Amino acid sequence: MRHVHWKRVLGMLCFLLAPSYLLAQPSTVDPDNKFAWAENAGWINWSPAGIPPADAVQIELDYLQGFVWSENLGWINLGRGPANGVAYTNTGTDHGVNIDSDRTLSGFAWAENAGWINFETSSAGADEARIDWDFLRFRGFAWAENFGWINLDDSENFVGFKLGCLPDQNFDGQVTPADFSAWIIGFNGSFPRADMNGDGLITPADFNGWILQFNMGC
Questions:
Q1: Residues 15 and 132 sit within 8 Å (Cβ to Cβ)
Q2: What is the pTM of this model?
Q3: Where along the chain do its domains lie?
Q4: Helix and strand tally (H, E) in the chain?
Q5: Strands, E, within the chain: which ranges?
Q6: DSSP SS3 for 112
Q7: For the CA atoms of the chain, what is the radius of gyration?
Q8: How far apart are CA 97 and CA 107, in angstroms?
Q9: What digits encode the pLDDT tens for the residues 157-172?
Q10: Beta-carbon count within 10 A of 218 CB
């Protein structure tokens, strides 16, 4: 059994050099926490019922994509994936919301009935729009010139994420050795998903936890 175990580990290590586009990690919105509040436009639903999977909100390593719904504003486009596969330039037709290296958000979403929504709100200080990986949710505020602030940070109504199947680290719906590369990214970034043994810490001990989860599958 030990011989098989290490052959498997060596096979996983081969995926460390996989192209970055294979490591993109879309996430699903938590159905129990899917609403943001716009002060002049009401509730915005980040996981509307009946939306095609290809249009659902996904959280990649460096950007957002998909559509959210507002009764008063219609569909809001967070982006369809950047032209260069890394980050939206927010020029021409290549617009969308980016996740910067410090986990703050930048770029623009487009509301079909209300125009641009700016997620780069550094002027908001501590309330700047951002990703909170510790609590798996959005924080801060986005700004729309035509209808004001969108609150991503309410204590009771907010937009959260679901981790889903833990061993499926690259979110492709399968548990394969390719998930090891995605786990390494999570480990290096101290993402909660890399905490495979559930102790609330991201440490080398989580490697053994990942092996256990991988063997268990989903």
A1: no
A2: 0.68
A3: 2-23+166-216, 28-162
A4: 3, 14
A5: 28-38, 42-45, 58-59, 64-65, 67-70, 74-77, 97-99, 105-111, 115-118, 130-132, 137-139, 141-144, 148-151, 159-162
A6: coil
A7: 18
A8: 5
A9: 999 987 667 788 876 6
A10: 11
